[in-house]
Amino acid sequence: MASQRVLVLYGGQSSEHPVSCLSARSVLEVIDRDRFDVVAVGITRDGRWLLTDGTIEPAPGSPLPEVQPDAGDPVTLVRRADGAHLLRLDGDTAHDLGLVDVAFPVLHGPFGEDGAIQGYLATVGVPCVGADVTASSVGIDKRAMKLAFKARGLPQLPYLPVSWARWQRDGSAVLDEVEAALSYPMFTKPARQGSSIGITLARHRDQLSAGLDEAFGYDRVVIVEQGLDRPREVEVGILGNDEIVITAPGEIVPSDEFYTFEAKYIDDSALHVPADIAPDVVDRIHRHATQAWLAIGCRGMARVDFFLERDGSLWLNEINTIPGFTPSSMLPMLWQAEGMAYADLVERLLDLALEAARDQPRA
């Protein structure tokens, strides 16, 4: 049987560019080359698609990798009568590199996890690992996601969305409104960002103001959310399309006050897989995770995150449609604990993407 061609996309224009490179490096190391013809395309920070040899190295002067501007020749996807073709661009000449059967966008954050790349791939007819356009866009937007969760009656912490325009127009009134609705500590979060980038813990008004300024550096909408006194942070992984399977919960013990970017990717936070959680609480986590999946219309994969308080109160935090994907990231570790090796997880996701494409109604 002819090999299926997989287009692995990584890098991208978001602040999570280095995280994407870390995840993609792991995927490229394990993908089955006997079954799949793998093509690696790095997307630079300014959005250019470059054909690479799949080697992903740290950026100069940084411990984290980055797609370099000279990493390879520019490429693009076009749709032809027989399917989507990858073209290598050489000045005014385009060289056809052949058909693409499926794409694995190992892209985190805006322009990768928000429906943008999913829409482009759908337009040119390339099946895609993970969620579709709608689920991706709702899942990454904390305001839209929380409204979808509310419609399902899921337990969430109190929060307020704040727009950049209102913050600029009357910041003092915004602070008054937030302090009237929520109590310290609070978290300020960009509405469409991941990896804890732009998130700040505020314990008083000055920190709240500074946190809003920080978060507005990443988005025009910020979520201010009620904080808790060091809750347990637990997560589950989900795989499937119409039929889903959920892992046992894992627990994060951050190296910082909360699970910051540094705590995730640089410092030594502890991951306990599986977590020591009572069976009745696990049942609640699984029920809420299923409803979160259904709320955004997810498919392929997701990681669903919760806060668990000492009194047993359980709060749904968020759903991630392209979570961190190195072997030491929580989603692969959760599946490893279930008996699914990292390489098998990658193959299963590609199979789910191809399955979803076969089942997709044709207009």
Protein architecture, described:
This protein is an alpha+beta fold and 363 residues long. The protein is 33% helix and 28% strand. The protein contains 11 helices and 17 strands. The strands form 3 sheets. The chain has a 7-stranded mixed β-sheet with strand order 6-5-4-3-2-1-7. Strands 12, 13, 14, 15, 16 and 17 form a 6-stranded antiparallel β-sheet that branches. Strand 1, helix 1 and strand 2 (36-43) form a beta-alpha-beta unit. Helix 3 (133-140) crosses helix 4. The longest helix is centred in the C-terminal third of the chain and has 18 residues, at 279-296. The chain is globular, with a radius of gyration of 21 Å. Residues 259-263 have low confidence and may be disordered.
Outline the secondary-structure elements.
Layout: E1 4-11, H1 17-30, E2 36-43, E3 49-52, E4 73-80, E5 83-90, E6 93-99, E7 102-106, H2 116-124, H3 133-140, H4 142-151, E8 159-163, H5 164-169, H6 171-181, E9 186-190, E10 200-202, H7 205-216, E11 221-226, E12 232-240, E13 244-246, E14 250-253, H8 261-265, E15 270-272, H9 279-296, E16 300-308, E17 314-320, H10 330-337, H11 342-359
Parallel strand pairs: 1-2, 1-7
Antiparallel strand pairs: 2-3, 3-4, 4-5, 5-6, 8-11, 9-10, 9-11, 12-13, 12-14, 12-16, 14-15, 16-17
Helix pairs in contact: 3-4, 4-9
